Structures are given as C-alpha cells and as structure tokens.
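#onboarding

Welcome to the new folks! Below is a worked example of what a typical request in this channel looks like: someone posts a single protein sequence, and someone else replies with the predicted structure as tokens. Don't worry about understanding the tokens yet, we'll cover that in week two.

Example request:
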Amino acid sequence: MALEDEGAHRQVLDSRSRYEVRRALLKNPGDLTDDQAVTLRKLKRKGGELWRAYALKEALRAIFAGDLSEDDVSILIDRFCSRASRSGLKPFVTSAKTIRKRKEGILAAVRLGINNAQHEGLNRRVRLIVNRAYGFHTANAALGLIMLTLGPITHVLPHERQADNP
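Example response:
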C-alpha cells in the first residue's frame, strides 16, 4: 500500500511539474518569475526537442514583435526558416515551408504596418453580442445591438493612414 501511495504521489508531482514547465514555456521571457526562469535554465541544460521548440518559438516571436525594419525581418525570417528546417521538428519544418512561401506578404505587412489584431478583437466582441442576442425576433435587432454597443465602426486602411500623415 505504501508503494501505491508513493507512486500516486510521484504522479502528482510529475503532473504539477509539467504544469509549471508549460506555464514557463508559454510566458514571455521578460515576464517569468524566478522559479520559472530556473525551470527554463534546467530545460536548456537538458536540451532536447522541447528546448529546441522553445528556442524556435521565441525566435519567431522576436521576428513579429513589431519593432524591426523590413530588412531586419527578412534576415530573421531566413534564419528562422533555415533553423526550423534543420530542427527535425515536424511542426516547425511545416511552418518554415509556409513562411517561405508567404514571405513577400509577411514583408508587405511589416512595411505597411498591417495586422489583423483589431479585426480579431472586433469579431470576438461581435460574437459575444450575437450570443447575447439569441432570442431576438429579427437579425436587425441583433445588428442594432451590435451598432449600439460598438458604435460606428471605422477602419482606416494603410494607404489612408499614410495620406493623413504627410
């Protein structure tokens, strides 16, 4: 019986440590607690697929941080794609192929300062309002609630943004 309890205790610790490792891997490096930083250092020392995947994820995150020029992004994309292709990690090999294929569009988005964050946020809010509007008799009532809640929706396109700031 003592051995069964010990095995169950070890399993709980393993699931707890997996949870802590997962939390450390998902956080931005600047936001890590001291314990999470220690966990990442242990992972780095151990190496392996998990550390390679984390390093690639952070390299990709740095590319899209938004504070780089188009030339810098181009260089970093090429580096990321070559590292990801050699990593042997199937999801990263696939993402490297996709990024290479879409590189021109990515660079255009960086040059123009376009991302879909505002649209995704707006879509999330509209879905929330539509969920609240179940039971309304007409779609116009739901649309009225959307317009009342979100107000006039205006999207400024990149070429319009540049025309405003000569």
